[in-house]
């Protein structure tokens, strides 16, 4: 009889030492993907970004209107010509190991981030010097105009800019870090992390929130739960059943076809975590035939019907944007239709004519299908069928998203394991403007997988973020948009909203686009 009691005593001791007590409030959440790695610089995956917002803090953060607000920064002074920026950190900032946050940590974090992120690289290219002045102050001196310095430092997605200790930020950007020490509102528990099962975070008792109310990703990050468990449930039906049974508290993106079922449960609430919505992006490989030719890429514009794609995904009409040609999302200040073609209905004759111009001769087209994602799978199969009708010889291998993210880095021809296209789903933070839209960038070999290459588009993008005059920037934006429709680094296959779902005893969730859990209570 002694061993069971000893086991219970040991378990109780472990619970106390790990900060988990029965009286504590625990929030259990299911996000789009489970946590598979820890480095928000080394990976652009959304799950790493979500992890980053829990354990790290930002120098600036975007509010609900998309305005960059000081977060870790207390004071920011820019010279009259905008070529020098001086930043002073807030008092009382500390990392999870108890060490103070210093200007040197911020500078090292910016430097590491700027090696990987398109926004970081753009800022670095315009920077003459970045220097530590004292323990709390650093300076950025520009070598050429860059009108969006604070917006760059508030980068919230792709390789988001988070501040980590200098000792960790000194890790080469090509080497993934494994130490998640930050200064943010939650503390990661590495001993409880099991890939494919769960990741655990505890409230950071030493965190000092800003005094302003939380607004978007900015303002005071006041954590009111003791423990957060990020649970892996890749099957949408399983997650929905767990939410209805009260086994979990929140689902970031329930499958659209399950939303009506959840809404009929009086113990569940739904809301738009991302009010502007998402886009289905069709990413093309510009280095492999036939899409190394612009005519072949443009043929797809006349084979994609955005509404067909959204209907296949299962998005309700009330959550669809039936037609949206905008690269920077519809229903935003940067919406544009300049240069737009197609995307409303199939035009087989036009598509086939463009394929002939491109010299297409029935080569196999490999369309990688992330079948473990209901949205990606439905969009992929719908477009593949349309492309087949247009005369393309389609091969649609099924795989999971993790395999897609690995294979998409391959540059070999399709008969040697390469690829031609895949679908990804982006939110408004991923595509909000010519600076931050990571898949719009077309710098050839230095770009992201797919490797679009167009000097004119790159020059137009740069002129947009260098222009201080907002009206002139808007004029440049339309030129960027028109050129993008010629180059087609990716194709917008449909914009939509999907609702998040939570138990009715959870309060304080807000439309933050990125799922964050400060200000959230559990009754």
Question: Tags for this entry?
Answer:
523 residues; disordered N terminus; seven-stranded mixed beta sheet; globular; single chain; alpha+beta
Q: Any chance you could write out the topology, listing elements then pairs?
A:
Blueprint: H1 2-17, E1 26-30, H2 46-55, E2 60-62, E3 68-70, E4 73-78, E5 84-89, H3 103-113, H4 118-125, E6 127-132, E7 137-142, H5 149-153, H6 166-169, E8 186-188, E9 198-203, E10 227-231, H7 236-244, E11 250-251, H8 259-263, E12 268-271, E13 278-284, H9 294-299, H10 306-313, E14 320-321, H11 348-357, E15 364-370, H12 374-389, E16 393-395, E17 398-399, H13 401-407, E18 421-427, H14 455-466, H15 470-487, E19 490-496, E20 500-503, E21 506-507, E22 521-522
Parallel strand pairs: 1-10, 1-11, 15-16, 15-17, 15-18
Antiparallel strand pairs: 2-3, 4-5, 5-7, 6-7, 8-9, 9-10, 11-20, 12-20, 13-18, 13-19, 14-19, 21-22
- Overall residue-averaged pLDDT value: 93
Beta-strand residue percentage: 15-25%
Largest sheet, strands/sense/barrel: 7 strands, mixed
- Major beta sheet, strand line-up: 8-9-10-1-11-20-12
Low-confidence stretches: 1-22
Helix content: 25-40%
Number of helices: 15
Protein name: ABC transporter substrate-binding protein
Keywords: Signal
Subcellular location: Periplasm
Main location: periplasm
Describe the fold and architecture.
The protein has helices at 2-17, 46-55, 103-113, 118-125, 149-153, 166-169, 236-244, 259-263, 294-299, 306-313, 348-357, 374-389, 401-407, 455-466, 470-487, and strands at 26-30, 60-62, 68-70, 73-78, 84-89, 127-132, 137-142, 186-188, 198-203, 227-231, 250-251, 268-271, 278-284, 320-321, 364-370, 393-395, 398-399, 421-427, 490-496, 500-503, 506-507, 521-522. It has 523 residues and is of the alpha+beta class. Strands 8-9-10-1-11-20-12 form a 7-stranded mixed sheet. Strands 13, 14, 15, 16, 17, 18 and 19 form a 7-stranded mixed sheet that branches. Strands 4-5-7-6 form a 4-stranded antiparallel sheet. Strand 15, helix 12 (374-389) and strand 16 (393-395) form a beta-alpha-beta unit. Helix 10 (306-313) packs antiparallel against helix 12 (374-389). It is globular, with a radius of gyration of 24 Å.
